[in-house]
Amino acid sequence: MIHTKDIREKLKDIDEFLLEEYKKNHPEKKRDWRTYEQQLAARLKYAIRNLEPLIDEAVATLHVERGQGRKPELSLKQRVILILVKELFDKSNRNMEAMLDLFCLLTDVEVSYKSIERLYSDPEVEMALHNLHVLILKKKGVSVVEGTGDGTGYSLTISKHYASETAKRGDEIKEAETQEENVKEGKKKRAFVYSFKLLDLGSGMYVSYGMSLKSEKDAYDKAMRMFENLGLTLESMRLDRYYSCQSYVGELGDIKVYIIPKKNATIKGPWSWKRRMKDFVENTEEYLEEYYKREHSEAHFSVDKRW
Description:
Layout: H1 4-25, H2 33-60, H3 76-89, H4 93-107, H5 113-118, H6 123-139, E1 144-155, H7 162-169, H8 172-175, E2 180-182, E3 187-189, E4 192-200, E5 205-212, H9 216-230, E6 233-238, H10 246-251, E7 256-258, H11 271-282, H12 284-291, H13 295-306
Helix pairs in contact: 2-3, 2-6
């Protein structure tokens, strides 16, 4: 049986010496950049070779009935390929248009940058991409997920950076719906788009995600609803301190949840919370080893933003 004081004493131990001891016993692995570049090139070649048959399968299950109006210039397959290639090569809409001019003889695609822009609000493309996501998870054999989840913000203004704002304002930045005053009109405008992504440690793939203009919590809720609709099983979950309260752990049920409790944490709460706190207090080193697999989420976000 553990008590609230046991949790708080363990948190003090982590702050004072356990964390340094853990870092010494688990040194950070340095990346072999030559191997990394070779692996990246191999992954890209594999993705490009296998992309078309997967897109064919994803598109084949969609049947769209059109009313009156102008038909799209491109087939659904062409639109899906176009948006994926644009993202893969990290081109702006105008630069992608210029690239297509070069490859139009091979691709039989000739469109303006506006057509590329419209892909992002095309519901048929959205459905096809969702189908593609589900197909890839099946091809990879992802059914039971050892999960790690993390949220971030994508800045809508050049004057703000999510990491620096989080360092200054802490968790409140993750919940603020509006953060900047528009002095001229007396209105507030949004500074970030929030994103939460759930990663499967076994495959290294994102299995679900959520985006929100309101808060990181709203993005998390959307990601979890998406996960429920995929029919996968969540075996374990690793979350940062923003989610380290009884309600989040209780919502996840009896799965193994690895969080570092907040400094004012108590033993009160659902049985799933009590069990996790017992594990945290009595098996701290093994618990931290699982918790710090969250670093995979942070690494993926870093790659996403640089890409």
